[in-house]
Write a structure and sequence with these properties.
The protein is α/β, with parallel strands linked by helices. Helix content is 42%, strand content 15%. It has 14 helices and 12 strands. A hairpin with a 3-residue loop joins strand 11 and strand 12.
Length: 410
């Protein structure tokens, strides 16, 4: 919006339409007109089956049918219902048992945690740091509460983690401010599918330690896609590296039940601190619950109750995990099919490991996106390239898309 009538700009530039939802709406309109077989809608950030229908774990849906009215109608406590907290801790950590001081605060999806962490662990006017490939809503959230988003170059010329630029940007920002929130989206990074290796994590932790004990650093690890990346234990091997850190470094895990339990519309998530001291953990709970009360108030109770019920029944939990594993394997096959097809088409992509999305570096993403739309292929143009949702299209489509992107780029 260039001009405001009654509203205040407050330093923001607000588009008339959300970019991703706008493109998706155009895809849906073409589907209605031309038919589903003529359109590839690779914009959706949710897992769809090969017929384009939303995947909802039946084992989770069955639990909803057992809820009593008070299980979904009553207000939940600000930080989450009592039985939800140990359940979501188990979901987030799986077979890893933290030795640090943990506190859980329920959030409306993963988004709520990002907003609460930036609001409480940075000051108005501060910069927040993430990689140059990032979920666009990070910038919107930071700007909405008077912060800015700064980025480091995620990958070097060899296609591996750019530890030098991460460290340089970290120190550049900390030369101007005494605290910093760093958002690390891994594994199965949105929008690229990159996953931080254990070696990458060593570099990150070394850099934040070297920043000095006079700087406060909050390391927010957005693990929204962790349970669709691959083996649950394998992809949590980085977690022990977040323990035993100096008291000026606070790791926080941002967990999305929206993804793991296919509860997108129920808006369920949690932020879990891994604090080095009990006092820091208690403060985390206090300030995050205060900010929750002042924004969304409390998160929906029903999804919390469903997750609690699942973790109270070992057989039910095993059923949910097995059903999710089936769809995870489906997703992994799609991602690898896209990766192989990109290689066959000589199309450069950001190094892909797992997840809902893959990305194609591109100098003119908006122009290429419009060309592809004319052919019935809907992708999301980002600042540095094109995002492809392998979660929302079939394996066959994943094999077709790269050659068509390559042709459009020419």
């Amino acid at each position: 919006m260039a001009d405001y009538i009654m509203a205040q700009a407050n330093g923001r530039t607000i588009p008339k339409e959300d970019k991703i939802f706008g493109i998706s709406n155009r895809a849906k309109a073409m589907i209605a007109k031309e038919g589903r077989d003529k359109v590839v809608n690779a914009t959706i950030g949710a897992l769809l089956d090969d017929d384009g229908k939303l995947v909802v774990l039946s084992s989770v849906a069955d639990v909803f049918k057992t809820l009593a009215p008070e299980d979904y109608a009553e207000y939940a406590p600000i930080g989450g219902i009592a039985e939800f907290k140990p359940a979501i801790r188990k979901a987030a950590f799986f077979d890893f048992e933290p030795k640090s001081f943990t506190e859980v605060v329920a959030t409306p999806g993963g988004t709520g945690g990002i907003r609460d962490i930036i609001g409480n662990y940075s000051k108005p006017g501060d910069a927040v740091l993430t990689s140059d490939w990032y979920w666009a809503n990070y910038k919107s959230i930071a700007g909405e509460i008077g912060r800015t988003l700064e980025t480091y170059t995620l990958l070097n010329e060899e296609g591996t983690f750019n530890k030098e630029d991460f460290s340089a940007k970290l120190n550049e920002i900390l030369a101007k401010q005494d605290s910093l929130v760093i958002i690390i989206n891994t594994p199965a990074h949105n929008p690229t599918g990159y996953s931080m290796t254990l070696g990458d994590w060593d570099c990150i932790i070394d850099a934040v330690k070297e920043a000095g004990s006079d700087k406060k650093i909050t390391l927010y690890v957005d693990v929204a896609y962790i349970d669709f990346a691959g083996d649950e234990s394998e992809y949590r091997k980085f977690l022990p590296k977040l323990e035993g850190l100096p008291e000026n470094i606070l790791p926080v895990i941002g967990y999305s039940a929206s993804k793991t339990f296919t509860l997108y519309g129920m808006r369920c998530g949690a932020m879990i601190c891994m604090a080095p001291t009990a006092e820091i953990a208690a403060e985390f709970k206090q300030v995050c619950e205060f900010s929750a009360r002042a924004s969304w108030s409390n998160s929906p109770r029903a999804a919390q109750k469903v997750i609690a019920k699942i973790y109270e029944d070992e057989d039910l939990l095993a059923k949910v995990n097995a059903e999710r594993a089936y769809y995870r394997d489906l997703l992994i096959k799609r991602g690898k099919a896209f990766e192989q097809a990109a290689s066959d088409a000589d199309l450069e992509i950001v190094p892909f490991d797992a997840g809902f999305f893959a990305s194609v570096p591109c100098d003119n993403p908006d122009e290429v996106s419009k060309k592809l739309e004319a052919e019935g292929i809907f992708l999301v143009p980002l600042a540095k390239g094109l995002r492809v949702s392998v979660a929302s299209v079939s394996e066959a489509r994943c094999r077709e898309i790269p050659a068509k992107i390559k042709a459009a780029m020419k």
